Amino acid sequence: MTVELSDHEIFAAADAVLASGLNVTPKRVREVLKRGNPVHIGAQLDRWWAQLMQEETRPALLDKAIAMLWDQALIMAREEATRAIADERQVWIEQSLQTEKTFVGQYRALEQLLTKESQVFFGGDLQSRRLIEQMRERLRQLRSYLKCADQIVLSAEENLKSSKRQLTEVQATASKYQRQCVKYEMELQALYSELLNRPIGASSMTLSESSNDQMGKPVIDFWPLLSMAQASIQQRLNELRRPPTQVGIGAGAEEVARREGQLEVVRHLCYEFSRQANAYQHVANGLYAEFSSIYWGGGKKDN
Q1: Are 174 and 287 in contact (CB under 8 A)?
Q2: Residue 245: CB partners within 8 Å, gap ≥ 6?
């Protein structure tokens, strides 16, 4: 805070200016003091002049001159004060203009920020509405897909029920076919035993008559092979019954080998009968395994 000059300081400075022969003015007093407000100095000089006039008696001409100087000093003081005030006013105006520029810049920056935020807000709101519409459309599609999936599930359940019915029928057929295969094997074994136990002089008509008893049975498929086997075996048995005297001398080893070959043929035929029966059994087991896997697989999916 600036400390105002005292009366004594201003009066002493005025005396010094007056002693130097110069006109006492607020500006010159301020130059001597190096500080002070011109207005305050001018007011104190008025008191200094009043005291000076009271202390000395001067001629009228001197008083007039002094009055003129005083008036001139007042004018100059007013001008000095006016200039000081104008300077201060100019400084204040410049500061005000700078403050106004700063305020305008801040206002414009704030306005731009508000505009940007408004665009972002309304743009985000539009994007949100579009996203909601897309989600609603997706939900409608999912509902349609779910309806189609329900229809597919119902159709699959119907197909599964139909497959189970078919599997039951196939299992029944497979069981029946398996029983028939067992029956085939038993009948084939009986035929083979009958073939081996038949008397050597029996005719092939006996076997044909036996075949008539089996008419309408699945084992009829084996009759051509059995007939051929019986004829071949009968022929070989007749040859084996020939007396040894009919065999040439020195041919004993060949005859034994021939008969062993014939027996091997018989064993081969018996093996062929057994192999065909096993083939029927294998087919039946395969069908049963296939349809069992379908049944159990369908049961797991149904669960």
Answers
A1: yes
A2: none
Residues of the chain with pLDDT under 50: 1, 200-220, 244-251, 301-303
CA angle 246–248–254, rounded 5-degree value: 110
Q: For the residues of 6-38, what is the DSSP string, one character each?
A: PHHHHHHHHHHHHHTTPPP-HHHHHHHHT---H
Whether residue 273 contacts residue 235, with contact meaning beta carbons closer than 8 Å, is answered with no
Q: Cα–Cα distances in Å, from 179 out to 174, 184, 275? A: 9, 9, 17
Within 13 Å of residue 159, how many CA atoms lie on the same side as its CB?
Answer: 9
Residue 201: phi and psi, rounded to 5, are -85, 5
Look at the alpha carbons of 217, 222, 223, 224 in this order and tell me if their dihedral is positive or negative: positive
Residue 23: which residues within 8 A CB-CB, separation 6 or more?
Answer: 17, 69, 72, 73
DSSP 220: G
Separation between Cα atoms, residue 41 and residue 60, nearest integer Å: 27
Q: By CB neighbour count within 10 A (0-12 exposed, 13-18 middle, 19+ buried), where does 277 fall?
A: buried
List the helix and strand counts (H, then E) for the chain: 7, 0
3-state DSSP assignment of residue 214: coil
Q: In this predicted model, what pLDDT tens digit does every residue of 88-110 receive, in sequence order?
A: 888 889 888 889 889 888 888 88
Question: How is the chain split into domains, by residue range?
Answer: 7-100, 160-302
Rg (CA), the chain: 72
